[in-house]
Design goal:
The complex is a heterodimer of chains A (114) and B (114). By secondary structure, chain A is an all-beta fold. Chain A contains no helices and eleven strands. Chain B starts with a strand and ends with a strand. Chain B is 0% helix and 54% strand. Classes of the chains: A mainly beta (114), B mainly beta (114).
């Protein structure tokens, strides 16, 4: 059981380039999320998808777009990368347990924008 | 929105000693409080969580306490071992029924020395 799989694990971009981070889960979870992790700032929610066909903004959505391709896959796109988007990105999916959404995270994608 | 503060940012203990990490939250509507452990180069992993209807929960060497009146919760690790060395994150959210919007603390780097 793979859980949440993210690709690529590492990426270096130049300012202005575009790229897409891919995420897939095999746990049949309805909800999926993209977080970014920066030193001293914890994890901040970029976008989430409560169910297939829906997406919503999180705390820091500017400069990003997302696509919920199907129930398994949720991608994050940077249209014109900026150095401020240098970060580690985590995808997660969640199951409902007694009313609470319990998250499972992927291993992360480290992005550097020069 | 919710604001979660976490202290200390770093914690060094000797093997066998106890470690305590504390978090406060601002939104009285929050009722789900998970703790995640992140090892180097990996994604956060859920280690324990607590709901608002209980004050304490234990799982072997790990325990979490919740004081809803004071809006704070704590992680206690007893008999620490070198493999407990990691970054720990607390988080808080309300039951949304759809997707979770967890707000994370800024993390505590725990180092267990021999």
């Amino acid at each position: 059981n793979a859980g949440v799989t993210q690709t690529p694990k590492f990426q270096v971009l130049k300012t202005g380039q575009s790229m897409t981070l891919q995420c897939a889960q095999d746990m049949n979870h309805n909800s999926m999320y993209w977080y970014r992790q920066d030193p001293g700032m914890g994890l901040r929610l970029i976008y989430y998808s409560a169910s297939e066909g829906t997406t919503d903004k999180g705390e820091v959505p500017n400069g990003y777009n997302v696509s919920r391709l199907n129930k398994r896959e949720f991608s994050l796109r940077l249209e014109s990368a900026a150095p401020s988007q240098t970060s580690v990105y985590f995808c997660a999916s969640s199951r409902v347990d007694s009313g609470a959404n319990v998250l499972t995270f992927g291993a992360g994608s480290r992005l550097t924008v020069l | 929105g919710e604001n979660v503060e976490q202290h200390p940012s770093t914690l060094s203990v000797q093997e066998g000693d106890s470690a305590v990490i504390k978090c406060t939250y601002s939104d009285s509507a929050s009722n789900y409080f998970p703790w995640y452990k992140q090892e180097l180069g990996k994604g956060p992993q859920l280690i324990i969580d607590i709901r608002s209807n209980v004050g304490e929960k234990k799982d072997q060497r790990i325990a979490v306490t919740l004081n809803k009146t004071a809006k704070h919760f704590s992680l206690h690790i007893t008999e620490t071992q070198p493999e407990d060395s990691a970054v720990y994150f607390c988080a808080a959210s309300g039951y949304t029924g759809t997707a979770s919007k967890l707000t994370f603390g800024t993390g505590t780097r725990l180092q267990v020395t021999l």
